[in-house]
Design a protein that fits this description.
By secondary structure, the chain is an alpha/beta fold. It contains 12 helices and 11 strands.
């Protein structure tokens, strides 16, 4: 008889320094986040036998492991853009449940903003021109324009308005205003979003994520380690992953993201429904991402996302708090932001979010959260359901 699968908990989370970090290297941010996450967990680094990392070095996560002084026996370097960390969390939870690892550290760090300011690199609007992308890149089809095309299709098909898309940015900034670590905290209005400089129609500047430095780390561990940890455990209830397309010509419906698949799988495996969720952390490189992901996760019907995001519903005190730290639109976005979704969800469930803490009826802490990351231009999705212990 096969042994029963072990339960898996997030036992430690931390951010590195974020925002404007001019004097650190990406490796230093990895190390800073890793040390803080281990301290947050209360566990000794000797228990870490798994490492997941992407986005740095030629042999990630080998180079990161060496820098951190770790010799893991389980590694993951899956790189699928912004959804990388939810996909990695799913892989790590499965490995721990099966007994292939005991404690897995997910770690990330980037100096994307500082590198551009110091002219160590330039901003990129394309992922390259190899493989299938060779058929799109010559026509100037940038990453931003792909999201913009998808947003325009949703507007055409369902009557979604520019004002409704702008509401996503306004409410993200309202949440960021209560987060002392957010890069931008000054409130904004719908009119200010709409009147900003055009980036890719229909997206003005404030429809688009900010560029920051920063990193983070998440430590997952088997249930037998939980009694030795310092904080309330947050259990992984279920997860799902999905990939969709890389060329726009292979995307069957611009109004449906791969979260429609990863979310359905995650909710089924967790044994809960969207109606049970207390808060959502959703990848928001652009306002349309938030709106369409809410639809695809099942918080509202397809085409109803525009109406759903109105009237402050996404704010900390709203019906469904979304991106409670301010998200990539206002708090931080150093690159592959999916790890920050997990960190914020865990802090909210543990009641550690300070002035931005979500409270439900009677002042109770939230019990269930969903973190859903998106990679590329809706190319991939990873969704994780979390429960406070």
């Amino acid at each position: 008889m096969a042994a029963a699968a072990r339960k898996v908990a997030v036992v430690g989370v931390a951010l590195s320094d974020c925002g404007r970090v001019d004097e650190a290297t990406p490796y230093a941010l990895h190390a800073q986040a890793a040390r803080r996450a281990l301290a947050d967990s209360g566990l000794d680094r000797s228990v870490v036998d798994g490492l997941a990392s992407a986005g740095l070095g030629i042999l990630a996560p080998v180079e990161v492991a060496e820098y951190l002084g770790l010799r893991p026996t389980w590694v993951d370097s899956t790189a699928v853009g912004g959804s990388t960390w939810e996909v990695m969390a799913a892989h790590a939870a499965e490995a721990i449940a099966a007994g292939h690892a005991n404690a897995v550290l997910l770690v990330y760090g980037s100096t994307a903003r500082a590198d551009i300011k110091a002219k160590r690199r330039t901003a990129n609007l394309s992922f390259g021109a190899r493989g299938p992308l060779q058929f799109e890149v010559p026509y100037g089809h940038t990453l931003i324009s792909k999201y913009a095309m998808a947003a325009r299709r949703h507007m055409h098909q369902y009557g979604t308005t520019l004002e409704q898309l702008a509401e996503v940015a306004v409410q993200a900034r309202a949440n960021a205003a209560r987060n002392p670590d957010a890069m931008y905290r000054t409130p904004i209005t719908v009119d200010e979003v709409l009147s900003g400089p055009m980036i890719a129609d229909p997206f003005t500047k404030l429809h688009c994520c900010i560029r920051s430095d920063g990193g983070g780390a998440v430590l997952l561990a088997a249930e037998e380690y939980v009694p030795d940890t310092a904080k309330t455990p947050v259990w992984i209830l279920g997860s799902g992953t999905s990939v969709s397309h890389t060329t726009m010509s292979e995307w069957e419906d611009f109004t449906v993201s791969p979260a429609a698949v990863s979310g359905r799988i995650a909710f089924e495996r967790a044994g809960v429904t969207p109606a049970d969720i207390d808060l959502a952390e959703i990848y928001d490189a652009f306002t349309y991402m938030t709106l369409v992901t809410l639809e695809d996760l099942g918080f509202c019907a397809k085409g109803e996302g525009g109406a759903f995001v109105e009237k402050g519903r996404l704010t900390i005190d709203g019906d469904l708090p979304v991106n409670t730290d301010g998200g990539g639109l206002s708090a931080c976005h150093p690159g592959m932001r999916g790890l920050f979704l997990l960190i914020e969800a865990v802090r909210q469930l543990r009641g550690e979010a300070g002035d931005r803490q979500v409270r439900k009826a009677g002042g109770r802490l939230p019990r269930l959260a969903v973190a859903s990351g998106t990679g590329g231009w809706f190319c991939s999705s990873g969704t994780v359901i979390l429960e406070r212990g």
